Amino acid sequence: MMGAGASMIAVDAAAPQSQETPEERAARMQWWHEARFGMFIHWGLYSVLARHEWAMELEGIPVAEYEQLAKRFTPKPNSARAWAKLAKAAGQKYMVMTTKHHEGFCQWNTKLTNYCAPKQACGRDLVHEFVEAAHAEGMRVGFYYSLMDWHHPDGAKCATDEAARRRFVDYTHGLVNELCSNYGKLDVLWYDVHWPLDAAGWESEKMNAMVRQLQPGIIINNRSGIPEDFDTPEQHIQASKDHAWEACMTMNDSWGYQRADDDWKSSKTIARNLITCARGGGNYLLNIGPKADGSIPQPSIDTLTAVGKWLHKNGEAIYTAEPCKVHSSAFAGFTRKGNTLYIHVHFWPGETVAVGGLTVKVNSARLLANGAKVRVVQEPFRTRFEGLPAVAPDSPVTTIVAECDAEPDQNTLAIRENRPRRGVGVDF
Ligand code: GLC
C-alpha cells in the first residue's frame, strides 16, 4: 500500500516475457470471466465542472484556466467506500477507476508531477482510498489510465518531435510503474485512447512487459495499441470471436458527472444489457460518474440497487453462464449453462410464454426467483411455458429456467420454411 517512501520499482525491461499457454491464460482470467459485472468510475477535475469529462477539449478551455479546477476538487474523505458498498449491493465483482483521464490530472501520489490530488487542494491520495474501499468490500481492483494527455507539454508534440516523445514515454511508463508498484495487488489495467502515438511510439510491448513483471496475474485491455487480454466495445455490445471482451457503458450519456444529463437508462435496460453480455460470454462494465464531492447521482444508486436485487435471486443465470445459441424472441433474452436454458422475460406476455424453434426437448421448467414449477408443452415449432401469473412475478426481468436434454439451440428459419402451410385452394 502507498507509504511515505513509495516510489517506482525498477524493472529489467529486457527480461524475456514468459510465453503463456491458452490454459494458463484461461486460469489467469477465470475470476474475471466469472465476475461478469463491474463498476466503472469516472472521477476527476471534470467532475467539478459537471459538464462531461471532455469539457476541456470540447469547450476549448485553456490549460491555465482548467488547472484552477484543482483548487476546487476537494471530495469528502473515503467517498469510494459508498461506491464499493453500492457495487457489492449491485452484484458487481470488480471496480475500475480513472487514475488519470485525458485531462492529465493524477489522482494518486506521484513523484512525477505536481498536478496530482495529494499535492493540490484535495490533499489526499484518491487511488489509495479507492483501493482500500474496494478491498474492504471484496472487490477486485482495476485502474483506468488514459495515454492521451491534454495537459502534459509533450502530450501532442510527442507525435512530431522525437525528444518530446522520449520524455513523454518515459513519463508515461513512470506513472504506470508507480500505479503498479505502490497499491498492492492490481487486478486490471484499463488503458484508454492512445492518440497521438501507436503501440510502437508508446513502446507498449515494453510497458506491458513491465506491468506484468510488477503485477503477475494482471489482466490488461486492448487500448495501448496491442490486443493483450480483452477487447473493449464501448457504448454497444459486440461479442468478439476469439478474444475475451467487456462492453463498457454509461448509465446516462456521460462518463464524467454531467449535471444536466438526465438521459438515464432504466433498470430494465441495464439488466437486459447484462443478460446480452452474459449470453455472448462477455463482461459488462457499467459506469458511475460521482460528483466532485464524491457522492453518486441518485438515479445511479436507484438503478444499481434494483439490478442488484434481481441479481441476488437470479445470479446463477449470469455469473457462470456459457455462450448461448438461443437468441430470438420479441420479449426475452437468453443465457445458458450446460443444458440449462434461462429465459429472461423483460416484456411479460401473461399466463403463457412461448418460444419458437427450440430444437431440444425441455424436461422441466421453473421460475428462477422462487423455484415455482412451470408447465411445459412442446409442439414441433413451439415450446409453451404455461400457467404463469398474469403479471410479471419478478422485476425488472422474470427468469424461467428450462432444463433441456441437450445444449439448447434454436432454429427459427425452420419455422418459416417448414411449418405446414394450408393446402392449395383450401380456404380458412
Ligand atoms: C472514450 C472517452 C472517454 C471514456 C472512455 C471509456 O474513450 O474518450 O471519455 O473514458 O471512452 O471507455
CATH architecture of the largest domain: Alpha-Beta Barrel
Number of helices: 12
Provide the spatial order of strands within the biggest beta sheet: 5-4-3-2-1-8-7-6
Uncertain regions spanning at least 5 consecutive residues: 1-5
* Mean pLDDT value: 95
Q: Overview of this structure, please?
A:
There is one protein chain. By secondary structure, the chain is of the alpha/beta class. The protein folds into 2 domains: 296 residues, Alpha-Beta Barrel (TIM Barrel); 84 residues, Immunoglobulin-like (Sandwich). It is built from 12 helices and 15 strands. The protein has an 8-stranded parallel sheet, sandwiched between helices. A 7-stranded antiparallel sheet has the order 9-10-15-12-13-14-11. Helix 5 packs parallel to helix 11 and helix 10 crosses helix 11. It is elongated, with a radius of gyration of 24 Å. The N and C termini lie far apart (77 Å). Alpha-D-glucopyranose (GLC) binds next to loops.
Question: What secondary-structure arrangement, pairings included, does this model have?
Answer:
Layout: H1 22-35, E1 37-41, H2 46-49, H3 55-58, H4 63-67, H5 80-89, E2 94-100, H6 126-136, E3 140-146, H7 162-181, E4 188-192, H8 199-202, H9 204-214, E5 219-220, E6 230-231, E7 244-249, H10 267-279, E8 283-288, H11 298-314, E9 332-337, E10 340-345, E11 353-356, E12 362-367, E13 373-378, E14 382-386, E15 398-404, H12 412-418
Parallel strand pairs: 1-2, 1-8, 2-3, 3-4, 4-5, 6-7, 7-8
Antiparallel strand pairs: 9-10, 10-15, 11-14, 12-13, 12-15, 13-14
Helix pairs in contact: 5-6, 5-11, 7-9, 10-11
Alpha-D-glucopyranose binds next to loops.
